[in-house]
Write a structure and sequence with these properties.
single chain, 175 residues, mainly alpha, 2 domains, globular
Length: 175
């Protein structure tokens, strides 16, 4: 099937999974492209903007709907009763997991400095939430200082586990 100027760019319509399949097939059919693809992958993993990561952290936590706490409250088989504070903590910890995964992924790939920058961005975002949390948000149920400090220590622990050195905690924070 040929393309014309009127044919839409199909690549632009693919989701991430479909793009992955296309890349895998392209590299299988054209192994000579592998070095270039590897170089692009290295650039992608190494390209970390701490401010953008901090902004993403703030947005993720601000977007957690307070109603989700209520969905988790109540008796749970094998766990007993889950109260509002425990439900809020679960939501906060779950929201952190993808960020911890990004730190580990970069470290495993040999991009320790990029992993450090990513972790610093996460800590910066938590610091912003600590300083300016909406008390009616999930983050505000912590209270914000306690939530930021606990999550910050989780970031530090995760970074340490994968060999990513972080500077000493910022003045005025526990993490």
């Amino acid at each position: 099937m040929g393309t014309t100027d009127a044919t839409p760019a199909v690549l632009d319509e693919l989701d991430a999974g479909e793009r992955s399949v296309v890349l895998d097939r392209l590299l299988a059919d054209h192994p000579d492209l592998r070095p270039e693809a590897e170089a692009l992958a290295r650039e992608t993993l190494d390209d970390v903007d701490e401010d953008a990561v901090a902004h993403e952290v703030v947005e993720i936590y601000r977007d957690i709907e307070i109603q989700r706490i209520g969905e988790r409250v109540g008796p749970r088989r094998g766990r007993g009763y889950i109260d509002e504070h425990e439900a809020a903590w679960e939501l906060l910890e779950e929201a952190l997991q993808p960020f911890l995964g990004q730190i580990a992924r970069r470290a495993r790939s040999g991009f320790t400095d990029a992993a450090r920058r990513y972790a610093a961005g996460v800590l910066s975002g938590l610091g912003k939430l600590r300083a300016d949390a909406d008390p009616d948000s999930v983050f505000g149920w912590g209270p914000p200082e306690e939530a930021a400090d606990s999550l910050g220590w989780s970031v530090r622990h995760a970074a340490e586990e994968v060999g990513v050195p972080l500077p000493d905690p910022s003045p005025g924070t526990e993490y």
